[in-house]
Amino acid sequence: MKFVKNIVAKEIIEAIPSSIQLRRTFIKKQLSPLKDCEVFCGSLGVYVKIENKSIVEIAENASVSINSTIAALNLLNLVRNAEFEKFYMPTSNTQITKFGAVFIISLKAILMGYGISKILIAATEYRGALYYSVTIPP
User: Fold this and answer.
1) Which of 68, 126, 127, 132 is the 20 to 30 A CA-CA neighbour of 18?
2) Torsion region of 29: left, alpha or beta (phi above 0 gives left; psi -120 to 50 gives alpha)
3) What whole-number distance in Å separates Cα of residue 70 and Cα of residue 99?
């Protein structure tokens, strides 16, 4: 598994709120400049799009812990450098209805100092690949 360096500034990490609800808002605010951005995923060889609904879903999933919040803030760096883990069929209604996922791509990387990051990308029939989620499981 590939090691990925944390590129989030120390001041931003120190500003991460302690409650889940405040972390959700914090993540949305921090990632909002990335709306409609496309980032090249080296392990897949494709561009992955970050839409507004991606940011909302990332905030929902990554707000559970401070480490997951830090992983979400390293979004571009993780997508660029994470390694392919597996393909699988969508397992939730959200993955199918909200993101139009035909299948899900799971990537992993070790975010140095924080743990193993799991990155999920929804592969869609019409739009290509959409960024979907990032977490550091407990």
Assistant:
1) 132
2) alpha
3) 24
